[in-house]
Amino acid sequence: MQIETYDGNTWVAYLDISGFKAMMKDKKKALDALDHFYQYGYDVLRDHADRYRRELAGGPAMNGLFFSDCGILFLRLNNTHAENALQEVQPLLDIVATLSRKMIRHDIMVSTSIAFGHFRYEERQGFQVMQKNMVYGNAFVSAYLDNEVNEPRLKPGHCRIVLDELAPLAPRLNQGLTELRERKMRYQGHLMYYWMVEHDDDIGRFQEEFSRREAHDWKGMCKLINTYAHGPTRTQRGTEANVGGANA
Question: How wide is the angle at C-alpha 90 spanned by C-alphas 86 and 91, nearest 5°?
Answer without folding.
Answer: 135
